[in-house]
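Class, look over these structure tokens:
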Amino acid sequence: MKPSRFGPAFLVTAAFIGPGTVITASLAGANFGFVLLWALLFSIIATIILQEMTARLGIVTQQGLGENIRRNLTNTLVKTIGIALVVSAIVIGNAAYQGGNISGASLGLSSIFPNLMEFNYWPILIGGFAFIILWKAHYQLIEKVLIALVALMSLAFIITFIITQPNMVEFFSGLLIPQIPDGAGLTIIALIGTTVVPYNLFLHSSSVHQKWKSPSQIPQARKDLYFSVSLGGLISMAILSTAATAFFGKQVSIQSAADLAPSLEPLFGYSAKLLMAIGLFAAGISSAVTAPLAAAFALSGVLNFKKDISSIEFKSIWIIILILGVLVSTSGYKPVNIIWFAQVANGILLPLITIFLLWLMNTKHLGEHKNSVLQNIMGFAVLIITLLLSGRSLMSAFNLL
């Protein structure tokens, strides 16, 4: 099947299967074994619950999440505060995430060409490449190639998962019995942040109404969502499990793409390092293009700018996000730390966007398509759990726990 035949939800999956997923899931497996698989399962379920709401909102209103937030906030003070919070969340979250995307792509290139550039020029070149793609707006073909490369990397992880023969008792125990080992709080938030990405809620709601025009097509959007996100979840679990089998309990420090290569060696031998580097680069570039684009859609809707991709307002937003991402990536911090922070930032910002989404999904203008009691229960359960986990991590970060 050609990538273009997939629906909008596949683009959401392609966006969250980036360098953050590879590094974060690998670190989780290497440091804690299989015990945090339940966090990925929760993340998959939470993603499906929230993205289904954004799909329904986008199809029924034929507008994105950003436009709906602006349209439904009628009180001037509340609207100003709400828009300021959303803009802050999108800018901060996307800048951190973009820094992680560019850093991940840089890791891949550094592993492919270890002696070509001793200085930190890769992020600038990658940022420039993403700029050209977005500015010209002729990125569709390149995006298809990148999705294919990400799919190749993902397939390698799933096959390697089978070949490495992980302990299935430990696998299902970690998947079905929630545990929070000492020091795992931020790791859990990072796993959630790498899957339930706030900007994907804006991206999905803005893209579904380009494909589906009638509420009668909501079941098609749901099928697209269930398949695509579930596939992404299986990939994430395969990455974590492979790392748990290869690294847990061993003195291994994951600092670059080359450190992850041994998990692929049973299948690809000496080509493992090169394959991982190419895959990580592809994932980074794909996400590096998607993140600024999604931020532009989100903020254009909230700020009532033109959503025309060629407009100066639209371009100004993604240019700012792209520049911030390059600055974060060239800040001198280790790439793994930048990617890690991006996932934690997303996990902490998620509750804010979820509150707005739940409010919108209970407004009268959605009619019969507003949230049911069950959908509200599931949505509020996601909100409460993410709030508790975020609060626990913040308290831990400030030594209050």
